[in-house]
Amino acid sequence: MIKLLIVDDEQVEREGMQAILQRAYPNIKIEQAKNGKMAVQMAEDFCPDLILMDIKMPGMSGLEAVAFIQKKHENIKFIMVTAYDMFEYLREAIKLGVKDYLLKPSKASDILQTVGKVLQQIEEEKRLAEERKQKQQEYQKALALVETDVVTQLLFDHVHEVHLDMLVEMLDIKSTNEMFVMCLLLPQDKDNLYPLIKKKLRKLGGCWVGALYGTQLPIIVFRDPAKTFRSQAIYLARELLSVRKSEHEEWFIGIGSVVSSLEEIRQSYHDSLIATSETKFSHKYRFYSDVPTVAGNEKSIMALREKEFFDQIRLGEWDKVEMNVMGFIQTYEKEGIPIVHTQQRVVEVLWLISRIMSEIGIQTITPLYSFKIQDYRQLRAEVNLLLEKMKQTHAEHYDQFEADTIRQLKQYIMEHSHKDISLESLGKKVGLSPIYISKMFKEKLGINYIDFLTECRIEKAKILMCDPEKSIKEITYEVGYHEPNYFSKVFKKVCKISPKDYRKNLFAANN
Known about the structure:
Elements: E1 3-7, H1 11-24, E2 29-33, H2 36-45, E3 50-54, H3 62-72, E4 77-82, H4 87-95, E5 100-103, H5 108-155, H6 164-171, E6 179-185, H7 194-204, E7 207-209, E8 216-222, H8 229-241, E9 252-255, H9 265-275, E10 285-287, H10 301-314, H11 318-334, H12 339-359, H13 376-400, H14 405-416, H15 423-430, H16 434-445, H17 449-464, H18 472-479, H19 484-495, H20 499-510
Parallel strand pairs: 1-2, 1-3, 3-4, 4-5, 9-10
Antiparallel strand pairs: 6-8, 6-9, 7-8
Helix pairs in contact: 1-5, 2-3, 5-6, 10-12, 11-12, 11-13, 12-13, 15-16, 17-18
Organism: Robertmurraya siralis
InterPro entries: CdaR_GGDEF, CheY-like_superfamily, Homeodomain-like_sf, HTH_AraC, HTH_AraC-typ_CS, Sig_transdc_resp-reg_receiver
Coiled coil: 112-145
């Protein structure tokens, strides 16, 4: 509802003006003020969209009141009302940005014409403001999807060459030279926790939240130079744990090491997973730097055997997987390595197997020891149990897997390319993990899913550009982008020409 304030020291003038306007515009709300000082106060309390201001009033004049109100409320519009057709007054009013003026006495038709013109302008501005608000809300929603996709690409080595830099630019994190990953382990019934956690982290700022994989939630945190690494991480960990309904809920946070670029962030993620290998700590978080390590310069088993494990798991060769893992245990036992160090190395292997399964679309158990292991016999028994559970999950997955998944996804993207589509939403569509979908596009089609989505949008944009009635801005929103500058960057990256120049060449060729 539009609100209007009539300011005049003569009551009969105020009442007459209100009667004329109320009859013509019954849906606007009208209040009155009898002097400039009262008008200033009502500008605060009533918040009018338009003020009809008498110039000559005792005490604070109309022009003084306008100047005072505009300092705090620059969006309020003014029409001056005066019995004096004096140039100096009007010139001063124009300087203050007054929209129009009325002379006393005025015909009802003149009043309605002058006020109606300004009311139309106010309605149009309100409509545009609401459109901008909706667009901004849609843009923020799109950014949230972008964020989870960027984290997925960074942590699981499916980096999108064309878009990643632009997506990172969109997310607008303050410049920092250091970052680290926190891996939050949640209980099994975690579906209602994800939005609460994202809301908490949005409020805290300075981080990107990934998608929920099984029971683990990866978070990329950007270093705050005003705090030490440990104090920043502990503060965030405690804030996250405060989301729990009860201290007895089984949450745990692994905190990876600090790295100096996004290219190295996978290492911090790996470290954060290792930090969660044991969860029996009262404070419910652990730094990777606090994890016991084997002395010497021995390379991580994960780095040495990752490709071998990937091929074995992809082909379902679980006998070989089990033989390799048990071979590691036997080697460490023969070398006399303390059990605490061996179980740490073995849990690295189990985490590797879990992550590989996640990457091929299988959500499996979180490989954690269920009790404190005392000797190698107990370690072998516990590892056998964990491997058996993962093997069973692998078998169940492939029994349910549909051969036409990739066709379904392509069709869905082509039909819905104008909407916000993320790896996570595609995963929910076909019941697969975001990591697997990204990997499947790359392996089966030789293209990243964002490349395919972009192709669909750009082709649709090219068709829409044939219509001279549509602006570039309109086309931007129609094909699924929320920001014209970003659309232009993507179009030029893909087509090697700006949208404006493409359209110019298109029309030139047709003429």
